[in-house]
Amino acid sequence: MDFEIYVSRNTPLTSLDDLEEACMIFLTDVGYLPKGYGPRTGVTEVKESVPFRLFVDCFLRRRDKTWLVEELAHELGTSKPTVYRHINKLKGMDLLEESHLETKEGTQRKGYRLRYGSLSDAWHFVEEHVNVAMANYRKSLDHIQKLADKERK
Question: Is residue 110 in some structural domain?
Answer without folding.
Answer: yes
